[in-house]
Amino acid sequence: MISLTAALPISSLFPFLYFMIRDLNVAKRTEDIGFYAGFVGASFMLGRCLTSTAWGIMADRIGRKPVVVFGIFSVVVFNTLFGLSVSYWMAIATRFLLGALNGLLGPIKAYAIEVCRPEHEALALSLVSTAWGIGLIIGPALGGYLAMPAENFPNVFSPDSLFGRFPYFLPCLCTSAFAAAVLISCIWMPETLHKHKGSENENQSIEGLEAHLIDPEEKVEESGSLNTKKSLFKNWPLMSSIIIYCIFSFHDMAYTEVFSLWAESDKKYGGLSLSSEDVGQVLAVTGASLLVYQLFLYPRINKILGPINSSKIAAILCIPILFAYPYMTYLSEPGLSIILNIASVIKNNLAVTIITGTFILQNNAVPQDQRGAANGLSMTGMSFFKAVAPAGAGIVFSWAQKRQHGFFFPGDQMVFFLLNVIELLGFILTFKPFLAVLEQYNRN
User: Fold this and answer.
1) How far is CA 277 from the centre of its chain?
2) Per-residue pLDDT tens digits for 379-438
3) Which has the least CB within 10 A, 91, 115, 307, 396?
4) Are 381 and 242 in contact (CB under 8 A)?
């Protein structure tokens, strides 16, 4: 529920962002709306990029629960204020603060590992990533259906009502109301950060947690065995898995941006000429499949193959699927809808397999009192890559549509080719010597 709370505000604005920027009268020409909208979309990721590591460190110092509670409270406040924005800069500021103060995903991934037994770690992290993925699908549906209610539902909402004067407030209010309910439920959430008082060295390591980002090594006796704590930046099993995570996150964000643009663009430009409702239906089916896959299939796959091998297989299977996308333009209904839904379901489930595998590697590459900081560091890197990916994907997509008769991968074929190049790079990096693995994963 907390992961869902963190995901909903990220994507719920995209269906109405174009109209919101138009109504704020900041763009002098219609062609400039996309330019201004891009900064609103990027402000959240920029804020999260700047503060994720700090929130992770804070979660290791004072506990997971206080950071989570504050993060949910910030969603309630700033997501509501964003819906009430009366100027462009208010929209930018509230989205930036929403990202900067929303340090939820890093601590909740650490929490998922700590709240269950080791054999259930894959299921716990798959639940987190599934809820996240579902939030990124439900969010746009919520925003698209509930925005501008006075225009879409004139019999229910008057133009003079609150929702008539603030046409983008209703979807934000619904998300904030859900976050408020989750905030209340956190009263019963147990803390999982255990501060062992038996060792003076351990107390020092917790009190001086920031030093783990700088200090070379710190050795601690724990449960009769020697546990070597390194600087996070010198912990190569952690850093290599974070780099791989960032590359695949960049790929997934670029794919998400391209998929909707490609599906809705005209067939003469290599698209599918689908409506926004058609695309929403595909995403809804994909979201439902993610829930089933992560609950019932992924834990078994991880148990058999392990996080590394499952990620490798998923990455290599994505490549032929992406190559097949441009050729769907030759299909007609109902075959097109069937094939597109199948391809989207497989592609997104393979992507979640990779991301969940990197989650497991990251959280097991560090001791518990560095786990929040490690997740915060990975969130910082991921947020940066996800801030760059949509802009880059949009530029490449626009360029590709202008070269419909190019010699080398004409039109949208070039877009999916470049997506496959990124996927192939991530696949290569899952092998040694780049990916350093802990002893329990050596068999993978």
Assistant:
1) 23
2) 788 888 887 877 777 677 777 777 777 777 777 788 899 999 999 999 999 998 888 776
3) 115
4) yes
